[in-house]
């Protein structure tokens, strides 16, 4: 049995970033950038007005009370023009005429004379106007040639806005990790929905992993259910290898019982076992191996919360490494209730999060942490992670927290949970 840190180090050490592929930006939401994106132009691309008003050249003639002839109008989308005498009416976003360097807001002027068509002909300034007032300068958001997004960044709507503004229509993204799921257990009822047979259960691990992996950006190639014998499991492994997957995740049959055949089956298949058993709760019997044909195998215990922990704290780091993303930034919260973990084991506790009246993130472990219970998982906001060497944890101490699912965004409740007496 090895520590969690040692297990992750062995798991990630041989991994390399997957190949890249080019996608239209409109289809790249949720994908991971393969390379750093450099800006092909400055943003803004020209000096323009920050508000409706009048463009002018700041100086001695732009004092409050001075009067000016309005010689033209400049709207957004108009090409550049040379500044004339006086001032030029200008609209928000319009290019600043050459020779002008400031804009006075329309509400800080007084119209003295209009033309027959109603447009202003002569105005008076109500304030002194300084150089650069109400002007958005070229390149002040993004200079030309600047690195705007690093490789490994996930393309979200905010990135779509930025890259679209820069005129970038296609991007190189990391190929999605291809994953196969194998659920073991003769008790798992398969086929069309039907009343459960005696001694059978519905498969919840397969649907959970499929949903969690897809949300994390993986391509789930297959999800097979096999019984508790070696031959069907080896067939499913062979199917995964032939499909060219990068990762195989299996659930169940990985502990020490008579029907826990997975460790022997993997060795029979020629796999190199990286580790078997991790000092943690839940999920201690977890096994990792590398197949001769290159896919990585993570064999998780079949208990629902062991599967959830394996997915969140082993599969998620593997997917990040395959996509060229670094480790997740550490997140911490104040522990709201004392915990007494078993020494020598890393504990993963389902928890609720909320902000207290001082703006501090609070975390409380939910009741009923038994690994077979799914309802508390569905009601939780996050995981509390207690280190192997942490010992007893008093209320009020700082602890590590992690998002509930493979994605890294936290769910935070509106207030502290109700505690049943």
UniProtKB/TrEMBL annotation:
The keyword ATP-binding does not apply. GO terms for biological process: Mo-molybdopterin cofactor biosynthetic process. It catalyses: adenylyl-molybdopterin + molybdate = Mo-molybdopterin + AMP + H(+). Its cofactor is Mg(2+). GO terms for molecular function: metal ion binding; molybdopterin molybdotransferase activity. InterPro entries: MoaB/Mog-like_dom_sf, MoaB/Mog_dom, MoeA-like, MoeA_C_domain_IV, MoeA_C_domain_IV_sf, MoeA_linker/N, MoeA_linker/N_sf. Pfam families: MoCF_biosynth (PF00994), MoeA_C (PF03454), MoeA_N (PF03453). Its EC number is 2.10.1.1. One of its GO terms (cellular component) is cytosol. Residues 60-79 are annotated as: Disordered. Residues 180-321 form the MoaB/Mog domain. CDD domains: MoeA (cd00887). Belongs to the MoeA family. Catalyzes the insertion of molybdate into adenylated molybdopterin with the concomitant release of AMP. PANTHER family: GEPHYRIN, MOLYBDOPTERIN BIOSYNTHESIS PROTEIN. This is Molybdopterin molybdenumtransferase.
């Amino acid at each position: 049995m090895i520590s969690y840190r040692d297990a992750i180090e062995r798991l990630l050490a041989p991994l390399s970033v997957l190949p890249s592929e080019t996608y239209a930006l409109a289809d790249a939401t949720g994908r991971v950038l393969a390379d750093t994106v450099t800006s092909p132009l400055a943003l803004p691309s020209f000096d323009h007005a920050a508000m409706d008003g009048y463009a002018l050249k700041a100086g001695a003639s732009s004092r409050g009370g001075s009067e000016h002839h309005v010689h033209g109008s400049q709207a957004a989308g108009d090409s550049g023009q040379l500044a004339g005498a006086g001032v030029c009416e200008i609209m928000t976003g319009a290019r600043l005429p050459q020779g002008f360097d400031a804009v006075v807001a329309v509400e800080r002027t007084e119209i003295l004379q209009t033309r027959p068509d109603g447009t202003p002909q002569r105005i008076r300034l109500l304030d002194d106007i300084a150089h650069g007032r109400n002007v958005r300068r070229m390149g002040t958001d993004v200079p030309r040639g600047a690195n705007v997004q690093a490789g490994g960044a996930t393309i979200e709507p905010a990135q779509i806005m930025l890259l679209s503004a820069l005129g970038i229509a296609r991007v190189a993204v990391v190929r999605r990790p291809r994953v196969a799921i194998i659920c073991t257990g003769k008790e798992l009822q398969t086929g069309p929905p039907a009343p459960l047979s005696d001694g059978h259960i519905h498969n919840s691990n397969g649907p959970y992993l499929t949903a969690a992996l897809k949300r994390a950006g993986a391509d789930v190639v297959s999800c097979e259910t096999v019984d508790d014998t070696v031959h069907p499991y080896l067939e499913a492994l062979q199917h995964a290898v032939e499909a060219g997957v990068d990762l195989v995740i299996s659930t169940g049959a990985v502990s020490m019982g008579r029907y826990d055949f997975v460790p022997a089956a993997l060795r029979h298949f020629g796999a190199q076992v990286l580790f078997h058993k991790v000092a943690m709760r839940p999920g201690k019997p977890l096994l990792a191996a590398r197949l001769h044909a290159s896919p990585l195998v993570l064999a998780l215990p079949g208990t629902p919360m062991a599967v959830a922990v394996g997915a969140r704290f082993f599969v998620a780091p593997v997917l990040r490494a395959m996509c060229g993303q670094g480790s997740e930034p550490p997140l911490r919260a104040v522990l709201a209730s004392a915990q007494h973990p078993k020494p020598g084991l890393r504990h993963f506790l389902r928890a609720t999060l909320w902000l207290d009246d001082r703006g501090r993130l609070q975390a409380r472990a939910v009741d009923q942490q038994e690994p077979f219970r799914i309802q508390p998982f569905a009601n939780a906001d996050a995981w509390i992670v207690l280190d192997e060497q942490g010992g007893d944890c008093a209320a009020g101490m700082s602890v590590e927290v992690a998002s509930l699912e493979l994605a890294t965004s936290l769910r935070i409740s509106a207030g502290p949970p109700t505690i049943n007496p």
